[in-house]
Amino acid sequence: MKYKNASRIFEYWETPGPKYPQGRLVVITTTKILSNATIPPEYKGKIPLFNIDYLDLMMASFPQAMVEQLISLQEEYNFTLTKIHNYKKAMNGKLKVPNKAKLSSKYDEEVGQIIFYEQGQEPHFDVPPSPPQFLYDELARIRRDMEDISAVHDSTKFQQKDIRSGKAIENLDDLDNNALSPILINIEQQLSFFAETILDIIEAKYVEPRILAITGDQEAADVKTFKGPDVAGNRRVKVNIGTGMPINKTDRQMWIMGLADKGYIDKAKALELMEFADLSGLYNSIDEQAQKMETSEILTGTIVEPNEWDFHQAHIKVIERFIKGDQFKKQEPQIQQAILQHRSLHQQFLRAEMMAAANLTPGNPPEGGGPGPQAPQGPGA
In what order do the strands lie in the sheet with 24-29? Predict the structure, then answer.
């Protein structure tokens, strides 16, 4: 539908009150009222305005992002650098010669060049004076302003002020983080409000089945269908930005090691959190991925036999992680039994390897030089 002279469209939202118990939503142009109704019920009397600000400025209509406030400082910084560069360019490379002196040739980049001059008229270079100190002071001042606005300071420079303690530098980093805390809290609240509003709209508008796929630590995606009423009920969404771990990488690794020492997390999880997951070996990672593929094949009804050369600890770990998940509980009994049988075969291989290793230790030579442990037989052997 088209409206004449409808060059701009405005919306007016009003929260519920004595005059309008269900709130009010008015849609108008510069000349006409297009709609004058209550707030749609899916918004539950709330105005869907998600005000994610950054930094509020006095006498400003809207908050500004950090980059906007750094533009003028960056221009000033570049201008000061240009002044220093021009000063060096103007004063550098000047040659002093006596008045009316004549040289046989000009200086160039040739190595071993010979310059002839008359007696008492030797040309020479003087060290040019340094650019004025106030230019460097201006650079330092501009950088401080940038750091204060962005709340990101270079903690290493404080070593020049005899602050060399790691704890003192960490405290300086915490000051930067605290400066941004009110902003992050506001963003978290607005994102939580946004997510709750989306769920309210889903509850009211999703009348046809929708597909939802959830992929997590389990070996297969959990696919579900849902409608709006399925998300009905009391709910609260809480958004957390960032992590509770220390920001400094060394401090974060020490913190994770402390959790592992106290038994809150296992060694494998500690290595993963410290970004050292590769220490468990590339072969381990290959076997874990192979077992995930084998598990997917078993879920389709395919019989999968373990290989003698598999790294069985990795396969068993993946299978047991899958068994403890919800996806395993949803399978038919024959599929569950096939997965348990697959794990049992890996365990037999592992026991055979452990027995072979025990017989080869000093003091336990193989008896009679006979054959070692036999590999386990799979189903139907």
Answer: 9-14, 24-29, 33-37
Per-residue pLDDT reduced to its tens digit, 58-76: 566 666 677 788 888 999 9
Residue 108, both tokens: 């160039």
| Structure-block tokens of residue 213 | 């796929």
The answer to whether 354 and 327 have CB atoms below 8 angstroms apart is no
Q: Where are the domains of the chain?
A: 9-43, 66-97+114-149, 151-242, 245-280, 282-360
The confidence score (pLDDT) of residue 281 equals 47
What is the rounded distance in angstroms from the CA atom of residue 270 to the CA atom of residue 293?
A: 25
Largest CA distance in the chain: 109
Residues in contact with 187: Cβ distance below 8 Å, sequence separation at least 6, in sequence order: 52, 241
Instruction: Give one word for 376, left, alpha or beta, with left for phi > 0 and alpha for psi -120 to 50.
Output: beta
Q: Which residues does residue 222 pair with via DSSP β-bridges, in sequence order? A: 214
- Which phi and psi (to 5°) does residue 155 adopt? -70, -20
Letter for the amino acid at 131?
P
* 109: helix, strand or coil: coil
